[in-house]
Each structure stands twice: as C-alpha cells, then as structure tokens.
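Protocol step 4 of 5: obtain the predicted structure for the target chain.
Materials: sequence only (see below). No template structures provided, no constraints applied. The aim of this step is simply to have a reference model before the mutagenesis design in step 5. Sequence pasted as it appears in the construct record:
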Amino acid sequence: MRFPILIIFLFIPVLSAAQLSAPGAKSVRHSSYPSSPGVKDPLFFYCNVTGSETGTLVAIRPEISGSYDFSWYRWDDVSDSFSSFLKKDTDVGSSTAAGLPEGGYRIMIDSSGLRVDTLTGWIFFDTPPIAEAGLQQQLCNRVALQGKAEASTQNFTYYDPLTANQIVQNNVITFLWSSTPSSVIPYPDIEINPVTYTPPLEDVTYKLTVNSLGCSTDSSFFYESIHVKADFTVDPVQGEAPLEVIITDKSVRGDIYEWDFGDDTVSYVKDPGPHVYYKPGEYTILLKIESSLNCIDSVRSQKIVVDPSSINIPNVFSPGDDGYNDKFRIDATSMRYVSMAVFSQSGIKVYGFSGEGERLKNWDGWDGKINNSSIDASPGIYFYVIRALGWDDERYDGKEYRGFVYLYR
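Step 4 output (structure tokens):
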C-alpha cells in the first residue's frame, strides 16, 4: 500500500507545473488574499504612457508532454467572479491572450476532460511617477541636491476570489541619483536630498530616476563645477644634499597659489619650478590655493628626506681598467666641500683634489696615475689626508680621515 501513495505524491509537483507570465510587464508582485493566505497569484504591472496600453498573458505547461485545453475567463465586477468568458485554445501546450485591459484573469487547463491546473493573474496599468531633480545649495566644499519622487497612481485594486472583497495594492516608489561623469553621491537610493562633501571637480549632469511598480521617470540638470582641489607631485622624495625636487602642479581651478617648502622659503607662482634642499633633514611642502570665486583648498606632500652627510673610505683599490675597483674613491653623501691628498711612503704627493658644487659632483677619485699624468703609481701603500664639510655643517678633518690605502696592480 505504501508504493501507490509514494507514486501519487511524486507526481504532484509535475501536475502543478503550469506557469503564467506577462511579457512586457515591468514588475510582478503577488496577491494577499485574506481568505487564502497561502495562495500567491501574480500581479503584473505595465506602464500606460499613451493611455492605450494593453497587456499580454501567456499560460504554459512546461515539462509536460501532450496537448491541453486552455479556457480563459475575466473577473466580472457584476457577478464578483471569473465568469466573463474570453476564449478557448484546444490541443495546445501553451496559450496566449493579448490586448487585455486591466483586471483579473483565470485560465482553466484541462486534459481529456479532467482539470489539471488553474492559473490566476491580475493586470494593472501604472502611470509615470513624478521626478524632479534640482540644486538645493552650492558651496565651495559641498553640493546639496534636491529631489522629488512621487507616484502618479497611488494604488491598485483587485479582489479576493472567494469573498469578492476588494484588496488594495499600494504603489511602490524607489529612486536613484546618478551623475555623468560619475561623481560621489552619498546614499543615492536612500536620501532624496543628498549632500556630498566630495563635490565634482568637473562639470556633471545629475540625474534622478524614479521607479514605480509599472513605470520609470527621469529628471536631470546640468551642474557647472566651482570646486577647487590642491594637488601636486614631487620627485624625488629622498636623496643627498643638495637635493633638487621637481614639483608638478596638478591642482584644479587654482587662481592664487602659496607654496611653503618647509625650509623657510615660499613662492606665490603657479609653477614654482625645481626646488633645492641644501640642509639634510625632513621636509614637507604645503600648497594653498584659492579660486577666482574664493574657494580654498590645501594639501601637504609626503616627507622629503635629505640624507645626512657621511664619508666611507676604502682601504684598497686596483687600477687596471677592468671596471672593478679601478679608483680610490670615497663614498661621500651630502658633502658641500671635499679635499683629498695622497702621498707615497716617502712623503711625496702623488695626487690631490679639492672642490665643491659641480666639480665635486663630477669627481670620481684617484685613478692611480701620479699627479694626473700618464705615469702609473707603483703598487704599494699610500697615505691619504681627507678634509670635508657636509651640508649639515658636519666637519670631517680629524685623524680618522687620515690613513693608508693599498694600491694593487
């Protein structure tokens, strides 16, 4: 006895496979019948822009082989029932009814004289909602938008099939703010009057889209930006003194400029050109700008690091034009002035250099030639004396900057 029961229940989902759809409808809700809370018939919403819109319903028996009879009825307000016969399609797998006015519809699906399904649906025609987009306030640091989103059709009515009691379906309004090009709009689908403190730096078109259950309406306006943004880049951001920093202005709508370089110097031109930091330390650049409409903005750069002075002295070199350790060259950082003298063991000076600025910058050390001649210095031990002054006023002239270097060949 258990097996026939199982077979019956297995077939129940198949026998309930009929579907009702409405091509062209914008949205679907479901019924709420007080007499039958578990029944959820579809409510289809169309947009009636011209006043002559009609609906279409399609009834289908998917996943079921064979042909069926589809009998169509419309809700009759006089008899308070689905008693107004529309049409009948026989021996088909699906049936379509077009040109339908607003109202309720029921489709009886029969097979070999037996009822296999009943479909019920309601068609409604909405009218375009009210959408108004405008500018509420424009300040240097913010933009306040003003919108209006209201339903033109407030509600729709249908009936409980068992009691014929009228049921009201309220219209539903949603909205969305957007802009082209895209800009920041806080809570664009929640705040009807949004305020942004990240105003657009370019001209935009603000648009408010209002959706009801069946229709959609847009409203837009052109917004001419007045906002300013202070912005620039620096390169490099670290190096030895004197450090030349290239400053590239990227500000928007700056009319008056004030550059504070962090080293007790300022500039009031739009393009200050390269700036040179002579003293080792850390600096930041502060830029303040003001537009022709007196909107103000400022920005500070990342840290610019000028390396402290230092000297590292090698103790061996091997001139040989092999590209490896060919010169006696000190590793000097952030030096204002350097002098070096090299002596043989007998006290004879074989090399000397002193310089600052470009001369120091281009100096690459002793190449092992006696006094810059073509004569090679002999392999052996040489004595050096170095005196230097860093850009941070550090002096390098003590005995630790006197010593021996070995020349190998």
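Step 4 remarks: Confidence is low (pLDDT under 50) at residues 1-16. The longest strand covers residues 114-126.
Proceed to step 5.
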